[in-house]
Structure formats: C-alpha cells, structure tokens
TrEMBL record:
Keyword Zinc assigned: no
InterPro entries assigned: ARM-type_fold (IPR016024), Vps35 (IPR005378), Vps35_C (IPR042491)
Domain of life: Eukaryota
Compartment(s) where it occurs, according to its Swiss-Prot or TrEMBL record: Membrane
Name the record gives this protein: Vacuolar protein sorting-associated protein 35
Function recorded in the entry: Plays a role in vesicular protein sorting.
PANTHER family per UniProt: VACUOLAR PROTEIN SORTING-ASSOCIATED PROTEIN 35 (PTHR11099:SF0), VACUOLAR SORTING PROTEIN 35 (PTHR11099)
Record flagged with keyword Transport: yes
C-alpha cells in the first residue's frame, strides 16, 4: 500500500511538472513577443498546478521550486513593462482578474514586488495589502508555500531604517508588523496540518511538518535582521508577540522549534535583558515539549556570551541571571514530574557551565547547583542509563575544566554526593578524569584533609565498590587504572614532615582496603613516599622537645614494616622482599641497626617460606647479597649472622651454575672497600674456592649427563673475581692462585670433552688482554701483574 502511494505521488508530481513546463513554454513565447495578456493567461495556468492536494510537502516543494524559478523570469518581464510605460498600478489591478485565487495571489505578490520597487506607493501599504490578501488561502501546505513566497520576494523590500524603502518615523514598526503578521498566519497554517487526516497517520503528519518548519522559522530570521529593532522594541513589542503566538498555538512541535529559533536567531544581549519574559514562557508550554534541550541551549549561548568578553559580566550580575535561571529550572522540573532523570541532569549541567563562566568566583553558586541535582537524584539509587551517567560525568568534569584544580573542586561539599549516584564503571571513569586533571595541571595536594577528600572521590579505583566484580575487569584497563593511582600517590607532598606523615597514614588507610590485586600497584609508591620522608628526617633520632607525637624515622619504619607485611600476606613475596631490602638500606643510612636487622630478618623469612620458584630465588639472593654488601650499620655479630645466612642460601640453589655465581658474589660481603672493618681476605678466598669446587662439580655432572664437560664460563668468571680482589690488595689472593686458575681454564678449553663456546672463548681472551694491559701500565700496578704469565 505504501509503495503504491509513493508511486502514485511520483506520477502526480510528474504530471504537475509536465503541465507547469508546458504552460511555462507558452508563457515564455508570450514574454518574448511582449504579449502581456497571454503571459498572464499562461502564467496563471502554470500556477494552477500548485493547487494540487495530492502531493506530500516534500514533493510539493519540488513543484513549487520550478514555479518559483519561472516567477523570477515573470517578475523581470513586469519590470521591463513598467520601464516601457505600463503603469504598475494597472498591472497590480490586472493580475487580480485571474480566475483562481492561488494563481492570482502568486501573481499579485510578484507584481507587488515590482510595485514596491517602483516606489509609486509606500512599501508598508503594499505589504499590508499582500499579507491580508494571502488569507484567502487556508489550505495548510498551499498557504505555507504562498506565504513563504511572499516572505522571499519582500525580504529585501521591508521599510526598515536605512533601507531605500524607509518610510516615516514608525517605519521599523511597519516592517515588524508585516513580518509578525506573516509569521503568525504561517504558524497557524503549520499547526493546522497536525489536525487534518486520520489519527493513524499522526507520525506521517509530524514528519511532514518537520520538513516544513524552516518555512515558518525564516520569518523569525528576517525579523532578527531588521535594523530598526532595538532592545526596547524587542522587549516591549517583538518578543511578547512572538511568545504569545508560541504559547497560544498549544502545539508541541511548533513550541519546541520556535522557542529554539528565538534563542538561535536573536542576539545574546537581548536574551539577557529579556530573561524574565523568555523564562516565563517555559512553564506555559505543553508538558510534552522537550524544554530541557531548549533551556540548555539558552544557557549554552549565554555561557559563550559571558566567555566572549569580561566586559559583559556586569550585565549578568545586574539582571541576576543565575537566580532567574535556577528558579526557572526548578519550575520546569516541578511542572514536569515525569521528566526523565537525564533531562534533569542535562539542565543542571548546563546551569553549572553557565555559573562557572559567569560567576567563577562564586563557589557557593556551583555548590548550590550540585546540591539541587543531588536533591533530584535522591531516592533514585545508582543510575544505570548510559546517557544519564555520561551527563553526570560532564557535570562533574565542568569544575575541573574551569578551575584546572581539583583542590577548588574539593571545596564543593556536594561534589562527592553527586558521585555516589554513578554506577561502578562510570565511577571509575570519573575517578580517572580527576587523576588526569591532577597530572595535567600538576596540582599540589598538600594536606591530609584534602587527600582524604580526594581519595573518597576516587574510591572507585582504590577499592571494590558495592556489587563490583573484579574478575570481570579487563586486565590491561585494570593495570592502567592502578598505575594512575600509583602516579597520584607519588605526587602527594608537603615539606612539613608532620603533615607529610599524616598524608602517608591517610593514603595507607585507603589503599590497604584495596584487595590483593591492587596492593602490588599501590603499596610500592606509598613505601617510596615514606622512604623519601625518612631521607628528609635522616640523622634525626628523637624530637629535641620530647614530644611523643612527633614524626621520627623509627615511627615511619614501624609503619613501613606493617605496610610491606600486607604484601607478604597476599601473597606477593618477591615484591615484599624487594621493599624490605629498600627499607633496610634506608634504616642503614639512618644508623638504625635494630630496624635494619629486622627488615633483613623479614626478607630472609620470606625467602625461606614463600619464594620457591628457582628463578625468583636467584633474583632474591642476589638482591640480598647486593643490599647486605652496602650495609655499614651492622656490628660484627649481626653482620656475621646475615652473611652466614646469605652464603648458606647461595649454596642451596637448585642448579650448580646458579650456586657457583651466588657463592662467588658472597665474597664481596667479606671485603668492602670503604669499610676497613670488613676486609677478611681469608673468608673471601674460602668463598672463591668454594665457588671453584661447585664449578668443578657442575662440569663433572655435565660430563656424566651429556658426555661433555660443558662451558668454561664459570671458571673465567671466578678468575675475574680473583683479579678483582688481587687488585684491591687482598693478601690471600696471590699470583700463584691466579696462575693456576689461568692454566686450568686453558687446559679445560683444550680438552676434547669440552663443548665449544665462542662467548666463553671471547670472555677469556678479553680477561687475558686486561692482564697484559695492566702489566703495560707500569708503576705499582704493572709490578703487581708482572709475575702473571698469560
């Protein structure tokens, strides 16, 4: 059925165009022969094609545009006729003899245009006559297009101030009167379309009306271009009459479109000075009108106007724009109890943007808007609708974008209350936006109270909110979120140690509830922030005034011990071990031997009880050895205990090569350059000999398992350790030991059972070259190396 209707319309349109073109042809022939009577006859017949009621507005428009083009040619002919002496008044009378009213009025408008140009009569009189005569067509579509034609031919001939058609003192009033009258009649015709035809075709009619709305709206655009309309005339005459027409038409489509037109076409300063009238119209509109969008656009325009220049801001204060808009929004929401929550949030979001532009210094206004939003959201629970949550993110992002400072946003008491209504995912998005704002603007958050408020805002990233299922989160997204929290923790700082310690305690309180997946990301930055504070307090033991509450390194280390312990409970033993060793090194720098010993004890316990993976054990034992080697705070007894443990664990690694490397690394524990009390040459030699035995054992095992002794790399590595300690002056490392080791490596490399290893060969060659280089240096070093034969 629909397809048939479309086909029929195409046929009717084709027939209409054919009839129009045929009569246009005869009209052109008459024009060419200057035959006025025939020209009028065929032009009237051509325009009769526009009398059809069978076409939809879209198809009718196609027919109208062809007729419009022909009428422009006819108008030029009429101008020529008047130049040749034909009276324009007679012409104006003559066209009124056309048989049908619609062609008659099109011709009348065309001649009327020439009549005004001739200036034989005042423009206002001709326009008044034309606008009145057009009432003869009451069919909505035909009437709309006729009046649209009238508006088109008259727009450059209005008796406006400064125009060549300017009349007496009230000339602008005449121009306004004509446009308003035409607008009113067109709007009535446009609204009447809604009530014609069966109810089942309502949607189709609404679509057709939507296609024609610009014909009506153009009148308001013409009105806005009239130079003679000043603020007083707009306020006293133009706006009240337009608003009256909009309210009285009681049509949802017309009211929405025309209110939007008013906001878009008239100047911002006029809107500001007529806010009462404009806002007073909103509650009078139909309940189904999408007021939120129109009101939001009004606030958006006013916001942009305020942002355009600081000079206009006093105008906003003078008219109390914020109070009026706030009051209007309240009335609109009250008048529409069924307004979706998205609409409510959109309105308050626009009002907040307006407030931030116009009153950036009035935080109480911004907080008032957020408070009103909270009131409307109360009882709604978490918002599930995607568009509504996005709008809340926009609402909460506005203060951040304006102030570039989360500290200012934290002063808004209702800010966190709005956040409560976001679902878990959107809460995370908003938390990320807040952190990004802090990073981008390098915001300094330097008090514990502000940190507390901030972490309450971003708690969606710090811990599982009610109903959140962490397992469903994308792993990469989760890492990125937690890394952003870690970066934030590193940014928190205060030069005052007392306040900084409070900040650390506040952060710790929040992150420890984050669960096992988050702690490996958030604990390390907290530990390093704490260690930074320890360095700041380095050398300070007790507060000189004896205050128990003061921050000391001991107090921080106690907190650190408890904090790192949470990682070992997750478990994340490798990370916990690394942090214990970092803490031990800081305690060493503060000369706190018992504290450093405790951290090492915890590290060894983790190594014994939690770290079972062989690769992790290798990394851990080398970390322990490296850290222990740098320690200077330990007495003989404690150092011996720890070094004994380290060497013991080194010899118990699973693979022989790993054992060997760990044991020869332990040799550095007994010889430290800058510590005279840690230079035990015998124990260094014991470690190196033990490493040699393990290397031998590794070769034998390789021979037994694979039939070859394997690489000599371990022997070359041990040789390098011998050379290191020989150079450092260890008396137990002598030329004979080095010589025998060189010969051992050479023999092994020449053995038939050894596996060729280019890397080991290169390493050994490089070592021998180093010995030769040291010989050639001369002096004490050269003498020392001279006996070694390579």
């Amino acid at each position: 059925m629909i397809a048939d209707g479309v086909e029929d319309e195409e046929k009717w349109l084709a027939a209409g165009i054919a009839g129009l073109q045929q009569n246009a042809f005869y009209m052109h022939r008459a024009l060419d022969s200057n035959n006025l009577r025939d020209a009028l006859k065929y032009s009237a017949q051509m325009l009769s094609e526009l009398r059809t009621s069978k076409l939809s507005p879209h198809k009718y428009y196609a027919l109208y545009m062809r007729a419009f083009d022909e009428l422009r040619k006819l108008e030029m002919f009429f101008k020529e006729e008047t130049r040749r002496g034909c009276s324009v008044v007679d012409l104006y009378e003559l066209v009124q003899h056309a048989g049908n009213i619609l062609p008659r009025l099109y011709l009348l408008c065309t001649v009327g245009s020439v009549y005004i140009k001739s200036k034989e009569a005042p423009a206002k009189d001709v326009l008044k006559d034309l606008v009145e005569m057009c009432r003869g067509i009451q069919h909505p579509v035909r009437g709309l297009f006729l009046r649209s034609y009238l508006a088109q031919v008259s727009r450059d001939k209005l008796p406006d101030i400064g125009s060549e058609y300017e009349g007496d003192a009230d000339t602008a009033v005449d121009a306004v009167e004509f446009v308003l009258q035409n607008f009113t009649e067109m709007n009535k015709l446009w609204v009447r379309m809604q009530h014609q035809g069966p109810a089942r075709e309502k949607e189709k009619r609404e679509k057709e009306r939507s296609e024609l709305r610009d014909l009506v709206g153009k009148n308001l655009h013409v009105l806005s271009q009239i130079e003679g309309i000043d603020l007083d005339m707009y306020k006293d005459s133009v706006l009240p009459r337009v608003i009256e027409q909009v309210v009285n038409c009681k049509d949802e489509i017309a009211q929405y479109y025309l209110m939007d037109c008013i906001i878009q076409v008239f100047p911002d300063e006029y809107h500001l000075q007529t806010l009462d009238v404009l806002l007073g119209a909103f509650p009078q509109l139909q309940p189904t009108v999408d007021i939120k969008t129109v009101l939001s656009r009004l606030m958006e325009r006013l916001s942009n106007y305020a942002a355009s220049s600081a000079d206009v801001l006093p105008e906003f204060l003078q008219v109390e724009a914020f109070a009026k808009l706030n009051n209007a929004i309240g009335k609109v929401i009250e008048a529409q109890p069924d307004m979706p929550i998205l609409g409510v949030i959109t309105l308050y979001s626009s009002l907040l943007t307006f407030t931030l532009h116009v009153h950036p210094d009035r935080l109480d206004y911004a907080d008032q808007v957020l408070g009103a939003c909270v009131t409307k959201l109360s009882g709604k629970g978490k918002l599930e609708e995607n568009k509504a949550t996005k709008q809340i993110v926009a609402l909460l992002s506005a203060p951040l974008d304006k102030y570039n400072d989360i500290v200012t946003a934290l002063k808004l008491s209702n800010y966190p209350r709005v956040l409560e209504y976001l679902d878990t995912e959107t809460n995370k998005v908003m938390s990320t936006v807040i952190i990004q704002s802090i990073m981008k603007n390098k915001t300094r958050i330097s008090t514990a109270d502000r940190v507390e408020a901030l972490f309450e805002l971003i708690k969606g990233l710090i811990k599982d909110l009610d109903g959140a299922v962490l397992d469903e989160v994308d792993e990469d997204d989760f890492k990125e979120e937690q890394n952003s929290v870690a970066r934030l923790i590193q940014l928190l700082h205060n030069d005052d140690p007392e306040e900084m310690f409070k900040i650390i305690c506040t952060v710790r309180k929040h992150i420890l509830g984050g669960g096992p997946k988050r702690l490996p990301f958030t604990v390390p930055p907290l530990v390093f922030s704490s260690l930074k504070l320890v360095r700041q307090l380095q050398g300070q033991d007790e507060n000189p005034f004896g205050e128990e509450e003061s921050t000391t390194p001991k107090k921080i280390f106690l907190l650190l011990n408890q904090t790192v312990e949470t990682l070992s409970n997750i478990p994340a033993p490798e990370l916990a071990l690394q942090l214990y060793l970092q803490c031990a090194e800081a305690a060493n720098d503060c000369d706190l031997e018992p504290v450093a010993y405790e951290f090492f004890t915890q590290a060894f316990i983790l190594y014994e009880e939690e770290i079972s993976d062989s690769r992790a054990q290798i990394t851990a034992i080398h970390l322990i050895i490296g850290t222990l080697q740098r320690m200077h705070v330990f007495g003989v007894e404690n150092r011996d205990t720890l070094t004994h443990k380290a060497t013991g664990y080194s010899a118990k690694l699973l693979k022989k090569p790993d054992q060997c490397r760990a044991v020869y690394a332990c040799s550095h524990l007994f010889w430290v350059d800058d510590q005279d009390n840690v230079k035990d040459g015998e124990r260094v030699l014991l470690c190196l000999k033990r490493a040699l035995r393990i290397a031998n054992a590794a070769q034998q095992m390789s021979n037994a398992a694979r039939g070859s002794t394997g690489s000599v790399t371990l022997f070359v590595e041990i040789l390098n350790k011998y050379l290191y300690f020989f150079e450092k002056g260890n008396p137990q490392i002598n030329v004979a030991a080095i010589q025998s080791l060189i010969e051992l490596v050479t023999t092994e490399m020449q053995s038939d059972s050894s596996t060729p290893d280019p890397a080991a060969d290169a390493f050994f060659s490089s070592t021998l070259r180093y010995i030769e280089f040291q010989k050639q240096k001369g002096g004490a070093v050269g003498e020392k190396y001279e006996p070694i034969k390579v």
